[in-house]
Fold:
Amino acid sequence: PHLTPNPSIERARPGKPVYGDWGYAPSAMDQSVKPGDDFWAYVNGSWDKNTPIAADRASAGPFVTLSDKSEKDVREILEQLASDPNRDHLGQQIGDYYASFMDTAAIDASGTAPLKPYLAEIDGAKTRAQLLSLFIKPGFASPVDVDIGPNFKDPDVYAAFAGQATLGMPSREYYLEDNAKMKAHRAAYRDYIVKIEKLAGLPGGEAAADRIIALETELSKVQWAAADRRDIDKIYNPMTPAQLQKLAPQFDWTSTLAKSGLGNAKTIIVTEPSAVSGAGKILASTPLSTWKEWLAFQFVSDHASYLPKAIDDARFAFYSKELNGVEQQRERWKRGVAAVNGALGEGVGEIYVKNHFPAQSEAQMKELIGNLEDAYRDRISNNQWMDE
Structure:
């Protein structure tokens, strides 16, 4: 339905919208499509056909446009902090992080040397207990995730969570579906593992790649499908540490929770109980040497953007180009912005707000939200939604 602009909302706007007006655009529609067949194509079909996707992107749209603008604004902040001798402690953290990410000459000159202490730590694991310690250590992969986040059914408080982890490919379907597309992805993934092992100097070669894929395939078989993971009632399974220990004793939850900083947690929300239980059984039945091969590969792959160009390019070729159809690696500064936002996002946000969100804008936003709420209440009370 067409939504008539509310005059009070119009008055709240400081000027002409930069990214287009609100409401629907008839020119975006494709009325050759029956809405009952594909409503998205009916509403957006012409826009979809006529809107190019940037070579370094997997999608296009107003949020991508907003992201591009904010990237440029954040880049200015990061470059200023990287060279400012009078920056404070937070500014130094942010500036140094960005500067080190951008110093590709130093990264290439270092080669794989920065990996050595981490790979040595993996190689030094001689027992399952030592393996479990690596699973919960920042930067290392794990077959289960242990973390904290807002409680699904009481979002004002945080809770401890345990659940299935993302594997080397996005979901279980990539390992299990028997169609040409997924088979091609699996073949490309195997090639990627072999290439990473060669570039990083990891032993094992193709045989190790086969063992890694076999391990992840077994894990994928016990993992939940995406539809089930979107069902809040299904993934809300509060357990005591004792119940979690009974569910998957192979993970030695008393020690694992303590080392994760969650030793005092009275309740852990288990999102996919059967996947956690299944991963525990696979942990016990899989040779320690295979887990170490998996950890080493995953560590290199997960940190590819901080390693020499050949490793970085290999990760892009698989994860961005093969899986998402992105044709071009994003410029280094754009990835630097993303890296800093990921590691120090709250600090960047604090500085960004000071620079780009003055008190006047905050007042205008509050006024706009208030007007929208008033308009919504008016329409509900007058049954205007039904009329339109």
